[in-house]
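Researcher: Structure prediction, please.
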Amino acid sequence: MSQYDVEHSPRMHVVRDGPREAPPLLLIHGSGASGGSWSPVVPALAGHHHVVRVDLPGCGQSPPARSYDVPDQAGRVAALLDDLGLRGVAAVGHSSGGYIATALAEQRPDLVRSLALISTGPSLDALRPQPFLLRVLLGPPVGPLLWRRRSDAMIRSGIRATAARPVDVPDDLIAEVRGTTYRAFRMASRRNTAYITEQSVPDRLAALGVPVLVVFGAADPRWEPSSAHQYDAVPNARVELVPRVGHIPMLEAPEATGKLLLGFTAVGPPPVIPEA
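Model: Predicted structure follows.
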């Protein structure tokens, strides 16, 4: 993996890896996380792609924003891609980052070549009962106080609570999650719900006509794993369930997740097999 090239934008913090001339691949994290959540899969991806990771507004090292509406966040990502001169990106979103990737393709189809959604709930009826800690963090008056007093151990426990197997949480992710503001986490969670209440993700994707990869952990505790098959109705969609994996495949099964992404984003047509 190449040395990190870190850039600061008025809109958001960016980390880029891999050759600049390689096909661009955009990684968008979920609510309350940061670009560091992708660290385990970046080395494999950067061998084939110009990998662009962002910290969404109010998360990690990015400044907060007035609006956390999904279309507004997608607009900021589009402006960033314009600044970097990137077109035809493979946009990958984890969890609610998949909503932003979808909204990016809705707004700017000129920017998005394909979409990969990892653990992205398709509709509100697929949501499972949320962990106790998450319910506490989303509600006053305890939430803001607990957020300010989070220890590294508490952050690690919160991340691991969404996994189905032991995970090694990268130190850079812990440091970046500490930079996420309570308002960004709470408001983004509300606006994500509004986005999928207005229209389900499969219905949105069906209107786009871009190739789609959907990856779900078969033991996801946050979204009903079988709901991944709601995406079967989307033309050009491929659905993959990863066994014994929860909500964070890139931390729980980075090798398998990287292979799925590389296979999906492979450049060029499939080989022609001559007839016998």
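Model: The domain at 5-265 is CATH 3.40.50.1820 (Rossmann fold).
Researcher: Thanks, that helps.
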